[in-house]
Specification:
The chain is an alpha/beta fold. The protein is built from 16 helices and 18 strands. About 45% of the residues lie in helices and about 20% in strands. The strands form four sheets. A seven-stranded mixed β-sheet has the order 10-13-14-9-8-15-16, with helices on both faces. α5 links the parallel β3 and β4. The radius of gyration is 25 Å and the shape is globular. The N and C termini lie far apart (about 65 Å). The protein binds NADPH dihydro-nicotinamide-adenine-dinucleotide phosphate.
Length: about 475
């Protein structure tokens, strides 16, 4: 176990066992009351200071992310910008979203004053993935902290130093109060955190691991937020700006070498424009550079076993009649994968139904937008989606019919850059939300306090009520609501 006191570039520590996780949770719990006592204003100051420090030392963080994930400099820079953007919003808006607010007591209870407030849960465990090792954890970590909780973060075993850097920089601005602790190690450390005495787990990772997380949390009835995988679809309508749609599709499918939970993996293009759209996508994707050089657009595939998944899906699709419009199995040269565009892939092929997590884009043609919606929704996942049409009104109508947590019209992944927008999915993509007001409330318990202002003339909730009280009440309710 390492804590926020360790130097930013400490080497990854050995696998944490349960005792270390328990020690981290207990250390986090011991400082939680002091952190809560700072109030919204004090925590806002600390979190804004953290944001400023991250930005001042962003080159350091970019280098660290690149060293651990192999992503391109621009992908790492974008990640840091997004992390800071969300952190700043969370710090600034926690008091408004979580602070006490007056609520109407309603006609029958008009003699009460009511306030509803959001109290911290205590210690929140955050389990993060490797693909965005700064941006992803900063969402739940900052929301939990802003609400008055302290946090134990378990980063992916592939990106422990990024997690440690975040904790170390936060400790610099909290005057020695260590509100973010880090436990490093593999899945066993994650499981130990789920079984530890934490008050909530925020998990981001694959849907398969999410099931294990929930099972481990069940023992203590620890609540969970699950941000799982995705198989995001784009719908291209007949009237779409094809140039814009193709540009967006290539970026969303290939950024971070396709290793993005809300990355684009499927396109449903209406027949009349499908060929032109495919031409534009192919032209743009073919121009992308792969490697670790300064000009590279796509870095490496981080998990070696993912290369096998990508290869198997591509081969399976081709053997079942799909067309390789760009690249193919030969595009896979470990640890890199050059962009692959497949067309006319059978809807039950793994390349359509399972998360690929690589720079592979499936483009299938449909007869209508209605068919596109049906196919997009025929997935166990439901994370993000996008719609391209010149008719923005109809685009919003299509978006509303999509079974996805977030939908962008005439853009892709736009929601991820909007800190006030809740982020999360449905089905195998998980439940609960990070980011925005919903993400802030996620790490709190709602508390209502009612306080009687005066004794009412009619008192139904007493054994000493008068004989006429209940008939009067019944008449009143019938008059008010009985029509
Ligand atoms: P994994 O599910 O493999 O791992 C996620 C985290 O869980 C890691 O820290 C991992 O540790 C840990 N872990 C592994 N086993 C257990 C366990 N039994 N109990 C508790 N924790 C455990 O996901 P990846 O890191 O490979 O990330 C990629 C996946 O994450 C993709 O499916 C992607 O779609 C999804 N994702 C979802 C996002 C969303 O917001 N919905 C955002 C980003 C990614 P270790 O790595 O050390 O094994």
């Amino acid at each position: 176990m390492t804590t926020a006191a360790d130097p930013p570039h400490a080497a990854p520590t050995a696998t944490s066992g349960t005792p270390d996780v328990a020690a981290a949770v207990s250390a986090a719990r011991s400082v939680q009351p002091a952190w809560d006592a700072l109030g919204f204003a004090g925590r806002r100051k600390a979190l804004q200071g953290w944001c400023a420090l991250i930005l001042r030392r962003s080159d350091e963080l970019v280098d660290l992310i690149r060293a651990e994930t192999g992503k391109t400099a621009d992908d790492a820079r974008l990640e840091v910008i997004l992390a800071a953007h969300h952190l700043r919003w969370t710090a600034a808006h926690a008091a408004r979203v979580l602070g006490p607010r007056r609520v109407s007591a309603g006609l029958l209870m008009f003699h009460h004053a009511v306030t509803v407030a959001h109290r911290p849960l205590g210690v929140v465990g955050v389990i993060g993935p490797w693909n965005y090792p700064a941006f992803i954890p900063v969402g739940p970590v900052s929301a939990a902290l802003a609400g008055g909780n302290t946090v134990v973060l378990k980063p992916s075993e592939l990106t422990p130093r990024t997690g440690e850097w975040l904790a170390a920089t936060l400790a610099e601005v909290t005057g020695g109060i260590r509100v973010l602790h880090v436990v490093t190690g593999d899945g066993t450390a994650g499981e130990a955190l789920c079984r530890a005495a934490v008050d909530k787990i925020s998990f981001t990772g694959s849907s398969a691991t999410a099931r294990r997380v929930m099972a481990a949390c069940a023992d203590r009835l620890t609540p969970v937020v699950i941000e799982g995988g995705g198989k995001d679809a784009m719908i291209v309508a007949a009237d779409a700006d094809l140039d814009a749609a193709a540009d967006a599709a290539v970026w969303a499918a290939m950024t971070n070498a396709g290793q993005t939970c809300v990355g684009l993996e499927r396109v449903y293009a209406v027949d009349t424009v499908a060929d032109r759209f495919l031409d534009l996508v192919t032209e743009r994707a073919a121009a992308l550079r792969v490697g670790d050089g300064p000009d590279a657009d796509l870095g490496r595939i981080v998990l070696p076993r993912q290369l096998d998944v990508i290869a198997a899906q591509v081969r399976d699709a081709l053997s079942r009649g799909a067309r390789a419009v760009l690249g193919g199995p030969q595009s896979i040269t470990p640890p890199y994968v050059a962009p692959i565009v497949l067309a006319d892939v059978p809807e039950d092929a793994a390349a359509v139904t399972e998360e690929t997590f690589g720079p592979v884009l499936v483009v299938n043609r449909v007869t209508s937008v209605a068919e596109a919606v049906e196919r997009a929704n025929a997935s166990d996942y439901g994370l993000g989606a996008s719609v391209f049409t010149r008719d923005r009104g109809s685009g919003r109508g299509v978006a509303a019919r999509l079974r996805a947590g977030m939908v962008s019209v005439n853009a892709v992944i736009a929601f991820a850059g909007m800190p006030a927008v809740p982020f999360g999915g449905v089905g195998d993509s998980g439940f609960g939300r990070v980011h925005g007001p919903d993400g802030l409330r996620e790490f709190t318990r709602t508390q209502a306090i009612t306080s009687q202002r005066f004794r009412p003339p009619v008192q139904p909730t007493s054994f000493r009520r008068r004989p006429g009280t209940m008939p009067t009440l019944v008449r009143l309710v019938r008059t008010l609501y009985g029509r």
